[in-house]
Amino acid sequence: MKDLEVIHTYLDNQASNCFNLLYNRYSTKIYSKCIAMLKNEEKAADATQEIFMKIFINLSKFGEKSKFSTWVYSITYNYCIDFIRRNKKLKNIFSDELENLPEIEDEVIDKELLEMEINTLQKVLKELPPGDEAVLLMKYRDDMQIKEIAQIMDKSESAIKMKLKRAKVKAQNLKRKMYSEI
To answer: 112 near 66, Cβ under 8 Å?
Structure first.
């Protein structure tokens, strides 16, 4: 059964096998996103359970305006960001100060990011603010379209393009600083 069929069957009959089917399809993906953002296996496991509770409590609110997987990703992303904020690890990931930086004129070529060695890239990503890391991972690892990222982050497409551009500049600058490139 496709996701929409499973959802409608669950909503109509409260069939536990539908709950299990969606859980089996998405739990690993949710857990992986949580580990990437929270950087702690135990917290990621707890977050995965709480996110599934949110999904099933709010399943009737899924308006089918986007793919179900995008909706799930959005809930996961927002939960993790809220978790980070609640734990005061980061005061404001998307501060107005960052959003209102002057226009960056030098374009960072995607090729430079894509050619970084995996180990180097992982170290650089860990040093980026979580919001910048998340947007880069959504675009390049998860191969998401700008439109999908904008929906998930509840931002305009132009804001996401600018956020990506700034995140790439930060990543490139961090790489140069960390590895003393001239």
So the answer is: no
Buried b (16+ CB within 10 A) or exposed e, 38-56: beeeebbeebbeebbeebe
Rounded to whole angstroms, the Cα distance separating 140 from 162 reads 15
pTM, whole model, 2 decimals?
0.59
Rounded to an integer, what distance in angstroms lies between the CA atom of residue 111 and that of residue 174?
Answer: 16
Fold of 96-178: Arc Repressor Mutant, subunit A (1.10.10)
Banded model confidence at residue 98, pLDDT cuts 50, 70, 90: very low
Quickly tell me which residue has 């409590």 as its tokens: 57
Q: Is 4 in contact with 18 (CB distance < 8 Å)?
A: no
Per-residue model confidence as pLDDT tens digits over 44-59: 999 999 999 898 888 8
Residue 142 burial (CB < 10 Å; 0-12/13-18/19+)?
A: middle
CATH number for 3-86: choose from 3.40.50.300, 2.40.40.20, 1.10.1740.10, 2.120.10.80.
1.10.1740.10
pLDDT at 113: 57
